[in-house]
Amino acid sequence: MTDRHNVGLELDGIGVTVDGRRIVSDVSLAIEPGERLALLGPSGSGKTTVLRAIAGLLRPTTGRVRLGGRDVTDAPPYRRGVGLVFQDAALFPHRDVAGNVGFGPQIEGLADAARSERVRRALALVGLSGAEQRDPLTLSGGEAQRVALARALASRPAVLLLDEPLGALDGPLRLRLQHDLRALFEQLALTVVHVTHDVGEAFALGDRIAILREGRLAQVATPDELWARPADDWVARFLGMRNVVVTGGRAAVVRPEAVSVVSGDDAVVVSAQRDGPVVRLVVRRDDGQELEAVTTGLTHPEPGARVAVEINPGGKLEVPVWREEHVSD
Amino acid sequence: MDRDRRALTAAAVALPLAFLLVFFAWPLAAILERSLVADGMLELPLDVLGDETTREVAWFTLWQAVVSTVLCLAAGLPLAWALGRFRFRGRSLVEALVLVPFVLPTVVVAAAFLALLPDGVERSLWAILLAHVFFNVAVVVRVVGTFWAGLDPRLEEAAATLGATPRERWRHVTLPLLAPSLASAASIVFLFCFTSFGVIVVLGGIRYATLESEIYNQAARLFDLRTAAALALVQLAAVALTVLVSGRLERRLSTRLRPPRPRARATGRERVGVVAVVAVSLGLLALPLAALGRRALSVGDGYGLDHFRSLAEETPALLVVPWHAVANSLLFASLATVIALAVGIPAAIAVARGRGGLDALVMLPLGASAAMLGFGFLLAFDAPPLELRGSTLLVPLAQSLVAMPFVVRTLAPALRAADPRLREAAAVLGASPGRVRLLVDLPLLARPLAVATALAFAVALGEFGATVFVSRADWPTVPVAIFRFLGRPGEANVGTAMALSAVLAVLVALVAVSSERALAGRRS
User: Fold this and answer.
1) DSSP string spanning B49-77?
2) Which domains can be identified in chain A, with CATH numbers?
3) I need a labelling partner for B352 at 20 to 30 A (CA). Which of A11, A195, B47, B181 fits?
4) Interchain contact, A104 vs B163, CB within 8 Å
5) Class assignment of domain B1-44+307-524?
6) If interface means Cβ-Cβ distance under 8 Å, which residues of chain A face chain B?
7) pTM, 2 dp
């Protein structure tokens, strides 16, 4: 199942205009063979459009798509060898699980025995061995998504494209499948482009993250780089940073983990909220500025408590301010 | 209040049930009696059933229906694709235009094909098949197109990324997914073609006869009521079998209509395809109607209004001036609409409340075929206790029976779709049950009611199969008058028939398009 992987993907100035409206402008990305890229952005930012352009379901108005060095911009989807997993699985309702997973091999013209072997191995990869005869309509959301993944893998795609693959799932299941996906991608060393609007999911699954904003790339970086140095105030806020103060053309950003809450009397705790192992505190300094801080430990100051705030200079940075005028022209 | 409700439901069931019992079950029983009972003894009409002619007629009925259905599916699929999958300017108008042939009276369609086809082939097998396709394309477009609109386009996209070419996608994904709607459309079209009457009696000439037209031939021309009844028995069995088989088929393929997805704008090659399909289909559908208009207006070597003027002149073909037929038709159709609504509205309420048996019962007159109904009326109301022989009332009664299923079919889904939470919300806001009905139910149902009324009126206007059995010579309707004129030799008679057909076609098309616009308005 691994004879066609490790192909690089290159987007060169992709632009998409639909009905005179620009959806995507000038997106250029080079994805290394075996690299996993998360395409992150709020809804309507054009990330699914970029994915569809890679898959060949949509022809970009401008720019080129290259797969393993081959220009595929004009190739139909069925000649590209990419696998695509949709948000809510999109399984064929008229075929059982084996019929779904075996669709690609069937189109390839594989004999029955070879086909069912492929199906068996693909299902084993996603942890659904023995599910061949099941009706897609009886699968749970998580199972359906696994089958969709197995269906894409069974065609031995050169590049795997995931469109919000966990978007339709809820909390714990989502985390488990996220973990499984990560393990699977590492095992297969597949080139993956993964669209999501969820920052945590992008951090968990992407070697690199490309942030898309209003159809343009806002920043492309590894998760660590992204957290260390967001490109501008918008990116910082989008990543979940709350300590962003804009003055003039610059924004001062303080990462929450650089803010320590100590005993003292120059601020008051506004709220305290546990988020798993960490506690997010919001404190208001007596000069009126609100700051978010992250602490660990089992005890934490309660709202209303008088405290003091210390800021680690390493967690302070200054970034440019993004203005919407930049893209509206 | 609960008891009130139950009483209301009981009344809603009782009225249509009583109506169907008297005007549908009884005529049917009369047919059974005439065909199965001789001198008070049960006697199967084996001589008629075994007769060479009967077998030939039955065989022709079957195979022309099969061929018509296949041709109709082939002709309708491209339009179903274009209208089901894509949005484009004028889409709802195209939808309305495609529906026009379906509501056109059979006799008008037959006349149009007489006008269209060149001498020598105008009364032939091809004429019959083409007329059937013309008529029923709307069924395929409607049933399959609506279903197509609910298919998830990502299934095809998934197949494409898995390596399937357009042809492979059609074979392995789209076609199997459409199968339930294809079966559904095919069984409806087959039923219509199997029980086709107006088209056959006009275009079949003396060579081609179906069970339906042979019933008329035996009963009205040869006065052999027993043979006619025996043929009706065969027809009834065949129709019942079709309904049974198609019902089973549909259940097995599990027809489940999904809500339509937002239609996409066609791009690239798709756009070319949509434009071509719509243009060619509408062009072909317009052809017979254009020919009809031309024929109605041609006088000698030129054009004129002579044939329309002749509508006001006495003629040996009818006991009345042709113009009176138009007035008769409007009167009868109005009466029939009132009856169909009076019976159909309670029936729709009962059906919407889940009286499943009634649903099938209400649809029966549609399947039982019009000529058989007319024949049943002839037998049942010829003698006491309900002697209506020669009564002009028989015409609107028969027409209402044919129109009522359309009323129920239009209203029941709307009633069912009315969200009960809307009423609950209104009730919680302090509205009394009466006000709920006035403020919530009525506005929601206004449009479907208008559509049902228009549909019933159009169907009654064009009704021919039942009407031709029960209409009095001095009270002809337009379809009957057209039939009489076409049955007479001479250029003038044909011209008058064409003029009458054109008048009827315009009337019905107006009603149909306005109802379709009402439907379209509801959606937007």
Assistant:
1) HH-HHHHHHHHHHHHHHHHHHHHHHHHHH
2) 9-228 (3.40.50.300), 233-328 (2.40.50.140)
3) B181
4) yes
5) mainly alpha
6) 19, 55-57, 59, 76-78, 80-84, 86, 90, 92-94, 103-104, 106-108, 148, 151-152, 155, 157, 161
7) 0.81
